[in-house]
Amino acid sequence: MKKSVTVLALALCLSLPTVNASNFENLPESLTIVENTIEVSALCTAAAKGDVEKVKQLLQNGVDVNVKSNGMLPIHYAARFNRVDVIKVLITSGSEIHTTCDKGLTALRHAEKTNAKEAAQFLKRFKK
């Protein structure tokens, strides 16, 4: 019995390399690499990082508070990363609180989705 199990195991081990062999004949001659770069505006980056001074500086220099970057407004980035101080600055500067991102989420929904409790609690004051 031991001998037959050993022979069976040996036969199985020897057959595995042939089962896993690849067929290179079906591969294309050249591969195309697609690189997608995502550019996020300076205001959205500052909002996500919580850099209140940079946000204020950009707004004073005339950057529009309601321009989407990568499908989201600066207030969405601030809400997503729980940056309540930045949210306050953006709202004071005229940010559209109830506007949705390209995925259909409001700033409040971004905060709730990412478990940004302080931001969600603050934004609930403005709920329609």
TrEMBL record:
Per-repeat ranges for ANK: 38-70, 70-102
Recorded coiled-coil stretches: none
InterPro entries, A to Z: Ankyrin_rpt, Ankyrin_rpt-contain_sf
Top-rank taxon, per record: Bacteria
Keywords: ANK repeat, Repeat, Signal
Residues of the signal peptide: 1-21
Protein name: Ankyrin repeat-containing protein
